[in-house]
Amino acid sequence: MHDNQLLIKSEMASLAPCEPLDVKTQLNYFVWNDEFLTTKPYIALFNVPEGIDECNFETRPGPEETIHDMRGAEPNFTLDRHAFCIRRARLELDKFDRETVKREYLPWVERFLMTEIEGASEIVIFDWRLRSSMDRSDLADGTQVDLDDTSVCLGPVGAVHIDQSDQAAAIRVQRHMGSRASNLLNKKQRYRIINVWRPICDRVEDWPLAVCDGSTLSPPKMMVVDHVRRSHIGEAIYPIYDSRYRWHYLSQQRDDEILVMKMFDSEQGVAARRKYN
């Protein structure tokens, strides 16, 4: 449950939770075009006026890759080494309307992260999302949803990306941390942008989330893309394919299994400062 994630579709049998299952698939990557030597890539995340392109770049399937199942090896993954980890925590909550999320779920997430993120002294939540892979045939072809509206349930994202560029992370700090932003941006304090992803059903049977080991990222292959919203312009990163990327997912993820993912880390000395998903 959160904003802008890539999910992979795989056909898999109903397995017991302890049985790992690697999956082979193709992921959609940014396609290079020489026009980006002088023009910045962008995508508009709202309904644009007629005659204006909502996006000026393409993504296409790369070569077949193996998505390695983390099942049975969950303790091996850490935020500093891989930019993601699996944690266990149960939350008894049977509805996820906006008021319940704000009143019960978000405070729970704050408490959870304070205990799980090493060195954390404060948690500030700036966004939340519901996602579903259920049939969205009620939407006409080409229909866009306004990502500024948290009441909209979003479908899976179909391209490899990182939610926050370095500049976007700094802008987030300025927008949400007020007078304390300068200390963070001047590297007097470490700050991280963390996503928390957990099922709100019993377990994930379809469209599991794929994450890339942050230590295998290749900075020259990362394209900074403007994400244009009605309220502001942010930046995300869309990678070009590289055979060195190593992908993972958690098969049959249960509602007490929480995937914690790092979008940005101001600490330069860690092996993984961010991850693709």
From TrEMBL:
Which InterPro entries does this one have? AsaB-like
Q: Which GO terms describe its molecular function?
A: oxidoreductase activity
Which superkingdom heads the taxonomic lineage of this protein's source? Eukaryota
* Family membership: Belongs to the asaB hydroxylase/desaturase family.
Q: What is this protein called?
A: Uncharacterized protein
Q: Which organism is it from?
A: Exophiala dermatitidis (Black yeast-like fungus)
